[in-house]
Design goal:
381 residues; alpha/beta; 17 strands
């Protein structure tokens, strides 16, 4: 089934009169990536720029903060890659400010076993708790894959947004993920054979997946519609294109009809292959520009602008729905944009805290609050 949302540059992006300022006060890293021990303190308002050559850890600072809110690397790296060579665990600790209220978020990333995260010294349960404790929006060169790559990143974009604006949808995303793991394990154990016990257990998992999946997909579809009024205008301003250019977003389910019935129909295929072949984890967000599928028919410049517009759209929607301004993280994005589009991107960013990394000089006309060389990030012996 396909659900569509259409936006054009004619629609204005509404603004809230007042928002809750969220900012990173300090982040501490222990055995994370290239850092043995390090601390970073950005400006609470405006843009802090981290400069330095490639490979010196600039991106790792942003990656650590994003991990606290999402439990994954925005670079697509496995968890063990974030642990410094020679160490068996990494620690990330951030003090956040929600207006004047402090929030302490801590994560332990281990090579083997289960990593854990705490908010104010209490174990965090569910993606929403972490996303609200450490809300951030990341822009990076990898964002091109949001448009040009496979559907996984687009689903993650939607689910990350749900973590901040839709508690029911976020809980459903956690539940779907848990059920899919259990169902996949059962399918592998069955080895293609259907015993009475396997069939009975699959019935239970299918019923639960159908229930949670319906909630999650409905929330995603609702989100796609809400994003419609933000993504198109942001794309138009970034790309400098006429108002009549239309951006379409189509949510595409991986099944037709009721999910429980579709799971039953695909059970034989699932058992033969030992995987979950349909469900919310197989859905996609189809993006088009003027009726052209952006993934296959847009230029790389168009794809990059659309990816940035998606990030901006999510950020603006979060501000509108929650009255909270997430911290903006921009990883070397100016290396991928010409000066005019770089200035257009900065002009699109709402007020609040931004942290930007760059290995090159800043484009002319971009104002910042602080510039920090990566070698000035506090490192303790």
């Amino acid at each position: 089934m396909i659900t569509s949302a259409t936006s054009s540059c004619r629609f204005a992006s509404p603004e809230k009169a007042s928002v809750i300022a969220v900012s990173l006060r300090q982040i501490d890293l222990i055995d994370f990536r290239v850092f043995a021990v390090a601390s970073f303190t950005p400006e609470s308002q405006g843009t802090t720029v981290i400069t330095g050559p490639n490979g010196t850890g600039k991106t790792s600072v942003l990656e650590a903060l994003v991990y606290l809110g999402t439990q994954r690397s925005f670079r697509g790296s496995p968890r063990e890659a974030m642990v410094r060579t020679g160490a068996n665990r990494a620690i990330v600790r951030a003090e956040m400010r929600h207006d004047t209220s402090p929030t302490l978020v801590e994560a332990e990333i281990v090579l083997t076993g289960r990593s854990r995260t705490q908010v104010n010294r209490k174990v965090a349960h569910g993606r929403k708790d972490l996303a609200v404790a450490t809300p951030c929006t990341i822009f990076s060169p990898e964002d091109l894959a949001l448009v040009s790559g496979g559907p996984k990143l687009r689903r993650e974009l939607l689910d990350d947004a749900l973590s901040l604006i839709d508690a029911e949808g976020a809980r459903a995303a956690d539940e779907v993920e848990r059920i899919l793991r259990q169902r996949a394990a059962l399918l592998r154990q069955a080895g293609g054979r259907v015993s009475a016990d396997v069939a009975t257990t699959l019935d239970v998992w299918d019923e639960r997946l159908a229930h949670a999946g319906k909630i999650l997909v409905t929330a995603r579809e609702r989100l796609v519609v809400a994003l419609g009024q933000y993504v198109g205008p942001a794309y138009g301003r970034l790309a400098g294109v006429p108002d009549q250019v239309v951006v379409n977003q189509l949510y595409v389910r991986s099944w037709v009809g009721e999910l429980f019935d579709a799971l039953a129909a695909h059970r034989g295929d699932d058992l033969r292959r030992g995987v979950n072949t349909i469900g919310p984890h197989r859905d996609d967000l189809l993006l088009t520009l003027e009726g052209r599928e952006a993934r296959t028919h847009a230029s790389q410049g168009e794809q990059r602008c659309l990816a940035l517009a998606l990030r901006i759209g999510v950020h603006q929607l979060v501000v509108m729905k929650t009255e909270m301004t997430p911290t903006l993280l921009l990883d070397d994005v100016f290396s991928e944009l010409d000066p005019a589009r770089s200035r257009a991107l900065v002009a699109e960013l709402p007020r609040g805290q931004s942290i930007l990394t760059t290995a090159a000089p800043l484009p002319v006309g971009i104002e910042v609050a602080q510039i920090v060389d990566i070698n000035q990030v506090t490192r303790h012996p």
